[in-house]
Amino acid sequence: MERDMGNLQDRLSDLPDLVLLNIMKFMNAKHVVQTTVLSKRWKNLWKSSPNLTFDSSDFLWVPVFNNFVSWVLSCRDNSVSIHNLEFRRKGCIGPKILDEIMTYAASHDVQQLTIVVNLVLKQDFVLPSCICNCPSLKFLKLYFWFPYAFASHIKLPTSFNLPTLESLHIKHVTFSTKENGSVEPFSSCSMLNTLVMDHCYLLDATKVIHISNSRLTNLTIRSFRGDGIAYEISLSTPNLSVITIKGLPDHKFSSMRNLPDLEKVKIEVSWYENFPPNHLVLISWLQVFAKVKILTLSWSTIKTLNVLLSEFKNLCAISRGEQMQLQH
Amino acid sequence: MAEKASPSSNSISLKTVDGKIFKVSPAIANQMLTIQPLIKDSDSSTIISLPDVAAFHLTKIIEYLEGKPAAAPSAVDAFEAQFVKDLSPEELKGLLIAVGYLKVNGLVDLMANTVAKLIENKSVEYVRKFFGVVNDFTPAEEAKCRQEHAWAFDGVDED
After folding, report:
1. Which residues of B lie closer than 8 Å to A, measured between beta carbons?
2. What is the pLDDT, as a whole number, of residue A26?
3. N or C: which end of chain B has fewer CB within 10 A?
4. What average pLDDT is seen over chain A?
5. Does residue B19 fall inside a structural domain?
6. Which residue range(s) make up the domain with A108?
7. Best residue in B17, B133, B157, B158 to probe A by mutation, most A CBs within 10 Å?
8. Cα(B2)–Cα(B144) distance, rounded to whole angstroms?
9. Which residues form the domain of B61?
């Protein structure tokens, strides 16, 4: 043990680059670049890191953060592909730097891309086609946030062409309509198994979004009543096993007949005193999910249903269905 | 790397650098990717020597592999947080080397993440000391390097 501990420092300084780069994987880009001053060996090591996490909260001045991001992308070793790139920014952002990051990521075979930003737009922002057609992408998270100024949209393409994508998380984006008037954005993503749609919108005339993915097992939908037009969600997903719905009920589901493997449905209705949920939509969900094995209703969902029942002024008794498992 | 020992059950014998012998099940040993090929060729009498692993580190590695919950990511997170909580920086260094050498499933990333969190907001001197880095820059070279990477030192207090 003594002998072992004696040369611990020597062996630490002999750690292979791969081990050191693996440690950098868990650090934000700013701290990673700081290792450049440790010694001559470390000076250029960070440039080979396949993982980049940019977080504006590491910076006192947001404009400095923007310049830092561009600088890192221009300095790093161009021959090293990107495994994981995360870009998180508080405060407002224009589309230019977003374009720059996505273009860089796509041209470096990115596998996992996370963008969480507050985008301020003077006109519609169309997601760069290099990202919508990126053959290496396995995980894509695009969480936008901008005040309810719906004069402009963050537009997704009519169809994603992402053959290896397994997990897609999108927030505050608008789907484009195909020439034939339908919306079916994910049908080319043949490996997709997890889909999270958080506050997603359709353009004016369309009323239905089709989700047709044979491998999809996990679907989460979150909506807020009143943010855009209510639409219908049509599922053609034979392997879907879990659906989670959050927010204020807004979008109805088409018939659930083609969901043989649906095992769990979780409903978490948000509760606002002055913003009553759309009971009709909530009840339509309960109807279409009637054959599910496990139904989980959050406390606020039960409260919402309870309010509805309070309209039955002469009601004496309610009995509970046997197949229903209630959790909160 | 392998020598013969007295035959026993189908457990695998691992010998640490400080001479202790540990018997582990094939299921546990197989999660140490470096020794996987040796397990295939070994019989119950084989002892596999681990030149980069001390008894303390192997004890911790086995504790991790045996104790890690099978499902529920939240349970895994809680278990891993507890596992690294009481490790001193010295113990962490030794484990980082041992785990990197053995390529232990799950632990490679847990150790890297723990080290990353430990050094993230520390001074350059602390990080040099942690990794046993000898500063081979001249003061002028180091100053120039800082200057070239000034973006990364925005808002950093110098020590």
Report:
1. 17-18, 52, 54-56, 90, 93-94, 96-97, 100, 108-109, 112-113, 115-117, 119-121, 124, 127-128, 130-137, 142, 145-146, 149, 151-156
2. 96
3. C
4. 86
5. yes
6. 51-309
7. B133
8. 50
9. 2-119
Is ipTM beyond 0.90?
A: no
- Cβ-Cβ contacts under 8 Å for B145 (sequence gap 6 or more): A36, A37, A43, B137
Question: Which of B91, B93, B131, B146 is the mutation pick for testing A, counting most A CBs within 10 A?
Answer: B131
A320 vs A153: which has the higher pLDDT:
A153
Size of interface A-B (CB pairs under 8 A): 115
Are residues B140 and B114 part of one domain?
Answer: no
Q: What is the pLDDT confidence band of residue B108, given thresholds at 50, 70 and 90?
A: very high
Q: Does residue B103 fall inside a structural domain? A: yes
B56 interaction partners in chain A (CB closer than 8 Å): 1
**pLDDT band for position A106 (50/70/90)?**
very high
Nearest-by-CA chain B residue for A30: B152
Within a 10 A sphere around the Cβ of B34, how many other Cβ atoms? 16
Q: Report which DSSP code applies to A183.
A: B
Domain membership of residue B159 (yes or no) is no
Three-class SS of residue A147?
coil
Q: Are residues B29 and B93 in the same domain?
A: yes
Domain presence at residue A320: no
Residue B81 lies in a domain: yes
Say how far residue A54 (Cα) sits from the centre of its chain. 17
List residues in chain A touching B: CB distance below 8 A. Answer: 1, 3-5, 8-13, 15-16, 19-20, 22-28, 30-31, 33-43, 59-61, 64, 67-68, 71-72
Based on the domain organization, do B128 and B112 belong to the same domain? no
Domain count, chain B: 2
Question: Between residues A300 and A324, which one has the greater pLDDT?
Answer: A300
In this structure, the answer to whether residues B34 and B99 fall within a common structural domain is yes
For the domain that residue B39 is a member of, what is the CATH number?
3.30.710.10
Supply the pTM of this predicted model: 0.86
Asked if B81 and B128 sit in the same domain, the reply is no
Domain tally, chain A: 1
3-state secondary structure of A212: strand
- Note the pLDDT of residue A256: 66
